[in-house]
Amino acid sequence: MDILQILLDFFTGYGYFAVFIVLLVCGFGVPIPEDITLVAGGIISGLGYTNVHWMFVVGMAGVLAGDGIMFFAGRIYGEKVLGFKPIAKVMTPERFAAVQEKFARYGNWVLFVARFLPGLRSPIFLTAGMTRRIPYWRFLLMDGFAALISVPVWVYLGYFGARNRDWLMHMVHRGQAGILIVIAVLAAGIGFVWWRRKRLAIKA
Question: Which range marks the domain in which residue 115 is found?
């Protein structure tokens, strides 16, 4: 049985609460695909078990709560949190080094891009808290902006494809590629603005 069917069986029985809990667990770095979780929430709405608009709200709440817990874990405990075994599995030395490099290279925009980097999402949010230089409102703004792109895409895609699973899975793969293209375009735009400002500053 694939992960989507497992999630559907669970969500059908427990509704919004189950979706919220699984998304919360996703935020801790547990290897459950967040996009498939949101799609499954949309599917049960399409099948009449829940309301799709409320599912969108629950999806937003779940992803932001999970991300926020990782942020505050880093903020409160600092590097001590790396000694906690479940966290150590998520924040390997290799990932920690990769996250540090991304923060140095892209600054706070890493928080936005992190939503679309499943392997680095939790380590990035944890590191953001550990630095103690990023206020929570800024973290929430960047993460929330990214979630407003990804969450409705997956929830409503699941809703509209609930009764045509083959079409749905095809669109899920296309949606993943499409979101990555959007992120690439945004990253290119941000890079261009940064380069232009730096050039103007040098001329001044």
Answer: 3-203
Q: Which two tokens stand for residue 5?
A: 């069917």
Lowest mean pLDDT among 2-6, 65-69, 119-123, 150-154: 119-123
pLDDT band with cut points at 50, 70 and 90 for residue 128: confident
How far is Cα 21 from Cα 40, in angstroms, rounded to an integer?
Answer: 13
How many domains, in total, are found in the chain?
1
| pTM (2 d.p.) | 0.77
